[in-house]
Queue: 2 jobs
Job 1
Amino acid sequence: MKTNPARAALKAGKPSVGTWLALPDTTLAGLMSSTGFAWLTVELEHSPASMETASACFAIIAASGCVPLARVPWNTVENIKRVLDTGAFGVVVPMVNSRAEAEAVVKAARYRPIGERSVGGQLHAANFATDFTTYYQKANDEILVVLMAEHVDAIANIDEILSVPGIDVVFIGPNDLHASMGLIPAFDSDSPEFNAAVKKVFESAKAHGVVPGIHVADAAQAQRRLDEGWQMIAVASDVGYMLDKASEVVNTLGLGQRGPIAKY
Ligand code: 3PY
Ligand code: MG
């Protein structure tokens, strides 16, 4: 059976840098798999991706030797079950704001005795190049479980959340976190409240043996977070790279701009 090198690196205290696939497209998934990022998160929360396309992307990413992750639209048993059973090597769950919500994630994402993940399907085992029984026996050691801390309620409850057994990573969503503070969404800012929250999550993660992660806008921010000790770093997204480059060309040639270009 294949292993999950991103989870192995993170559990060994090493960094692992990846990006987001916000555009649901199998050709793009194949191309991005060849860029050298350790993992790619297929976006199902804020994108029009269907389960069929996401599942095809997981297979392409896994076959390339990269690690397919999925961000589910919301913290539900159905969402977590379907992305794992169709071949993702890990799940990123948005807006986990309480201990009960963290327990629900682990229950859905881990097989017994840690959780109560439902048993079925073939694509998960196929992406790990193994049979169903072996996958069933080893999945709890390979599936990466990532909870997102991206709301002031999560920051308030962070110690209770991160003391739930079975969580691998706490991953900050800076845009939602800013928004929950009544601030303009951004990957980073000088806001004392935002920076205090980021520090609190980092310290809580370290205290509970959970890997600290965060989404950043570019390589410079990624390097700064790596230097601070953050391990799971997502740098921008496919759509961010495309729009950034297109707007740079348009601006350089003085072709005019239609408005602010989304960073993410
Ligand atoms: C956010 O910044 O809110 C995110 O969800 C990033 O992944
Ligand atoms: Mg978010």
Job 2
Amino acid sequence: MLDRLDTNADTPQVWVVAACFNEEAVISNFIDRLNSLVSISRLVLIDDGSSDQTVKKILEYKRNNALFKDKLPLTLLQLTRNFGKESAMLAGLDYVKGHCEAVILIDADLQHPPELIDQMIKAWRNGAEVVTAVRNDQDQESRLKVATASWFYKVFNGIVDSIQLKEGAGDYRLLSAPVVKALTQMREFSRFSKGLVPWTGYQSVEISYQRVARIAGNTSWTPWKLLEYAFDGIFSFSAIPLKIWTFLGLTVSGLSLLYAFWIIFSTVLHGIDVPGYASLMVAVLFLGGIQLIGIGVLGDYIGRIYVDTKARPHYFIRAIH
Ligand code: UDP
Ligand code: MG
């Protein structure tokens, strides 16, 4: 094997950043796989408040490796609790900023094949500012998930002007140093990285890959969390959901006015017609529903403003090993 310290002298510093949350089953395997890539110079793991043996396994690995200088240097940032993947990634980016020329963000659960890294680095050395791994494995997901995901992308791209999201482009990326700096400057909460990276405007090159199924452990996504994430995406990149209420209100008022004229006209012609219970109920419930949705959307934006104005730190670090 090549001596990593020697190769570092003339190869650029490419660091790998991965957030881990309860990954005891795969973490050693993950570090092993990265260890065999000589093109990278350091691995930075962020423990996002795991309650299992993840930290212990990483520290064990670090101790064993310290004796060999051809092994991949490893840093562990231990967060004080589970802050969520987006905050954990931000902790990683804050830490590596200014120390390396490119960063690779990858999931620690081995669903992102580490072997793609060499290809990503090659594209970056050919001038790419961002390299995005795009998965082409829709067949592995349930039909419902594929359908809802594609519906989300259509809605998002339809109403957001500033950026276009690509289906399958996730969190497996190479970011050059200026992009890392840009991302760490954006301190908003409810971070939606999928959108933040294209929003910076740096040019991306795409590489397609097959995502593998998780070999162990569980995904932390529930249908509810996915729905919330989808709203995060749309609400943090568009104000259109706020604006449609004016339009909807105008349309409903206009139609009611027409209906009022119709009632006057028909009363004059045929006299008063007493029945009307059903149509009244429908109108009341329909309008009540619409108003509640409107208030809900308002509430969501206000909630975001509330969280952002508190401007709390995104995470706290207990220890750096
Ligand atoms: N993760 C994290 N904090 C969390 C949830 C997940 O750091 O609160 C990490 C997790 O360890 C993994 C990556 O984020 O490395 C992706 O998580 P997961 O596999 O649950 O998501 P999916 O691959 O299904 O999108
Ligand atoms: Mg995963």
